[in-house]
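Box 4.2: Ligand-aware structure prediction
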Amino acid sequence: MQTIKYTFIGPIRQAVTMARLPLKGALKDEQLHVVQEAGILIKNEEIYEIGPYWDLYPEAQSIGAEMVNLKGDFVALPGLIDCHTHICFGGSRAKDYAMRNAGISYLEIAKAGGGIWDTVTQTRKASLEKLAQLTVNRSNRHLKDGITTIEVKSGYGLSVEEELKMLRAIKLANENTSADLITSCLAAHIPPKDFQGTQKDYLKKISEEVFPILQEEDLANRIDAFIEETAFTSEDIQSYFQKAKEMGFDITVHADQFRTGGSKVAVDFAAISADHLEASSEKEIQLLAESNTIAVALPGASMGLGVAYTPARKLLDAGASLAIASDWNPGSAPMGDLLTQASILGTFEKLTNAEVLAGITFRAAAALNLADRGQLKHGYIADLIFFPTDDYREITYQQGRLKPSIIYKNGIEIK
Ligand code: NIG
Ligand code: FE
């Protein structure tokens, strides 16, 4: 029988639970459920109770909880969730960044054979173990910033063997970091230059030879595709996504980054999320708002490319659910600082604290189809972060400068 361990943390100046909020639409700060002078009682890996510290104190004592006394003022939040990254990669694209800033566009670099293909070459050169180590290092950096769940995509392998190498590397990385890594297969990132056959032939091969192994080896249950001029068309992707759906995979889409089309595919396939959306117009915004597909803004990609932000305000006002992710990758989003990016998106798009924090907690959990995290609530995973401040508004106000100084993953403090 498993022994039961209770831990009682507090008093916490403010615990922002992110509970009791709607999944979709605009949010006001007044809607946030903030417990003042809070205590959090953890039972093994889960949150058992959250409430006023002195109300819970007698119970915590009587069940023999380990008392963790916080010295100073702290604001607690659920562990942050980054629902879109590409942190498994080899090499660097500092050269691309310099070229872009000298006036050559992302798509021009891609068309000239650089861009994503350059990272494919670097990633193919790296061993599985090396890629796993790089992924662990980047995950641990994220974890220090309070990001306890991280989605990680393949997509720099672009052949059956190389995609599987990446996916197995991410699985190995997951076993070697305290953060939870959620893997997505992005073999449909761009058509590989060295494949003999059409784009549809490539996608057919991946669906026949990679999809079954994803399930056999428990490598991923999410299928992603980049729908764009330099990647795959809406038409190319139909039978690929059809097959993925039939096999029970969740669908997610790189949509409307430079031109529209992707979000329609996402909604048609009832995708869990449609990510990017920088180019979405009123039509796509409406489509997403009427669907259950979570819209994911990637401000780090806008900052990395120097282009407009995802119309987050309009999406929320139309009634969509909005998550915010870093898109951390060597090309378009090299910074990888989720909290800074989400805060700055809030400044430019006029998002409330509630909307920004929802986008990196429970709405990001929904974008990963995870119902066990993203809120401070009974039964949820005890992923908790504590910011050294007495006012939750300081978090976005300091635009990412204020980081959490105490982090719990599955009820255990990460030192
Ligand atoms: O989400 N848009 C396509 N894929 C990535 C970029 C990957 C890269 O440039 O290496 C993105 O921005
Ligand atoms: Fe991406």
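In the box above, the bound molecule is fe (iii) ion. The CA atoms of residues 215 and 286 lie 34 Å apart.
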